[in-house]
């Protein structure tokens, strides 16, 4: 595996683990308010999830989007079992983050094809 792909794969796995931990841990006591809303946090998390591989392998965008969206859906299904609530709006926010996270790689691919 080439170094950029290896780094992107490891980064994606790490971000996926952080997302799983943050969304599937039972809720704790309320902390200080966050600067972003819950939906913005979902979009940012899934943007971050797909960005590394979407940049290094833009041709993988569709498969990456499907896997990431399925991951978000699985989280929403499992959340009620850990004392959290699953919401359709969270899944839509995940989807928006996925699309936004894949755009830079697609733009890079388009520009490379035009050069």
Keywords:
elongated, mainly alpha, VanZ family protein, 115 residues
Q: What is the alpha-carbon Rg in Å?
A: 15 Å
The string of secondary-structure elements, in order, is HHHH
Major sheet attributes: none
Q: Helix tally?
A: 4
Report the uncertain regions: none
Average pLDDT taken over every residue:
95
Through-space gap between termini: 27 Å
Assembly status: single chain
Tally of DSSP β-strands = 0
Structural class designation: mainly alpha
Indicate the proportion of strand residues. Answer: under 5%
Question: Could you please describe the fold and organization of this structure?
Answer:
There is one protein chain. This protein has 115 residues and is mainly α. It has one domain (3-23, 36-114). Helix content is 75%, strand content 0%. It is built from four helices and no strands. It has helices at residues 3-24, 38-56, 61-78, 88-114. Helix 2 (38-56) packs antiparallel against helix 3 (61-78) and helix 2 packs parallel to helix 4. It starts with a helix and ends with a helix. The relative contact order is 0.17. The mean pLDDT is 95.
